[in-house]
Amino acid sequence: MNIRLYVWQRGTAALMAVLVPIHIAVIFYATRQGLSAADILSRTRGSVVWAAYYGIFVAAVSIHAAIGLRNILAEWSPFGERRCGQTAIACGLLLAALGLRAVYAVVLS
Amino acid sequence: MSAQTSELSVSIWRGGSDGRYQAYAVPRRESQTVLDVVSFVQRHLDPTLSYRFACRVGVCGSCAMTVNGRPRWTCRTHVEKVAGDGRLEIAPLANLPVIKDLATDMAEFFRKWQKAKGVFAPSQTRHDPIAQIRPDTAARAAADTAIECINCGVCYAGCDTVRWNSDYLGPAALTRAWTLVNDARDAGNRERLAAISASGGCHACHSHQSCQELCPQTLNPTAAIAGLKKRTTAAYLKGELKI
Predict the structure, then answer these.
(1) CATH: 3.40.50.2000, 3.20.20.10, 3.10.20.30, 3.40.30.10. Which one for B7-104?
(2) Residues in contact with B185: Cβ distance below 8 Å, sequence separation at least 6, in sequence order
(3) Which of A58, A67, B45, B59 could pair with B55 in a Cys bridge, judged by C-beta atoms 3.0 to 4.6 Å apart?
(4) What kind of fold does domain B107-237 have according to CATH?
(5) What residue spans define the domains of chain A?
(6) What is the full per-residue pLDDT of chain A (109 aa) written as tens digits?
(7) Which residues contact B55 (CB under 8 A, 6 or more apart)?
(8) Sign of the Cα pseudo-torsion (B217, B58, B102, B82, in order)
(9) What is this model's ipTM?
(10) Nearest-by-Cβ selection for A2 from B161, B197, B237
(11) Cα separation, A66 vs B73, whole angstroms
């Protein structure tokens, strides 16, 4: 890992240190209050705040996980650096696509 | 010593990387070091045994070996402390190519010192007055924590990251870089910080702290590497590093 990847990984980790507790608090709130899917969607649909919050969350997770995966592959697999990077980018893009699709589903659909 | 056996059962690695352990019986003595054991084998049992040592007092850093699975400086390792049951398994240092028996090829280890820009880059000439470095300055205190490295290779042999990533510069080279980063007389920090910020540099460290645990000089390379991470990150965010 070079300094550029290090800064991105630590930066996204710092961001997630704030975002994850909020995410968990939202999960606890929704389950404790017994909110139905319709209740949740009525709160999230058209909300710029929820779109921004989970959009940033998905971006941070995708970048952070991809860099971490790249490091694991580089140290534990027989792949070369280039192939590790390509695999990690593909996984990061997949995570981003799945996450943003979910954000789209609860905010814009 | 009364409850101990009078002989040590010693297994020593013989041959290259494809070698095997060979058993020897060595008389047990008071205040015996692991290096004494190896020297006894070489002088009295098998003169073809290859190993490396020089000072015998923990200064030169040449006699490190793997003793009962752990890298150690053998001249300062008492048998009593590591072989209570009278058994010793002595192998060459890990993470380094084996030349023969207990002698490893340290070339890559020292090449990485060069790669980490572990060479002092003078900012003045011999005609300038000698720089006055106060011992109580923060930079000098930081350099002091790492300056006593004897290049024995114990930290390098015990490092998981070195084992997993052959490009990783390793704790010793980075500790050396840390002393120079904190040396007010040095003028090579731009190149040095760039060198240790590349792939295989200080950011590859997982902070497992094996180096700190194993260092015979009780240095803390993990702390030095953490300092380098902080220093390089600041330089990168200021745009001073081009990677």
Answers:
(1) 3.10.20.30
(2) B120, B122, B123, B124, B131, B133
(3) B59
(4) Fumarate Reductase Iron-sulfur Protein; Chain B, domain 2 (1.10.1060)
(5) 3-107
(6) 899 999 999 999 999 999 999 999 999 999 999 899 999 999 999 999 999 999 999 999 999 999 999 999 999 999 998 999 999 999 999 999 999 999 999 998 7
(7) B62, B75
(8) negative
(9) 0.85
(10) B197
(11) 40
Q: Is A39 on the interface with B (CB under 8 A)?
A: no
Q: Residue B199: list chain A partners with CB under 8 A.
A: 1-2, 81
pLDDT tens figures, A28-56: 999 999 899 999 999 999 999 999 999 99
Chains A & B: contacts with CB separation below 8 Å: 34
CATH 3.30.420 fits A3-107, yes or no: no
The residue extents of the domains of chain B are: 7-104, 107-237
Q: How far does the CA of residue A86 sit from the closest CA of chain B (Å)?
A: 16
B197–A3 C-beta distance less than 8 A: yes
**For residue B2, what pLDDT is reported?**
45
Residue A109: predicted pLDDT: 77
Contact (CB<8Å) B233/A2: no
Query: Which residues in chain B have Cβ-Cβ distances shorter than 8 Å to A75?
Result: 161, 164-165
Instruction: Please check whether residue A65 is in contact with residue A73, taking contact to mean a CB–CB distance below 8 angstroms.
Output: no
Q: Is B243 within 8 Å of A81 when comparing Cβ atoms?
A: no
| Cβ contact, residue pair B164, A76, below 8 Å | yes
Write a three-state SS string for B12-28.
Answer: EEECCCCCEEEEEEEEC
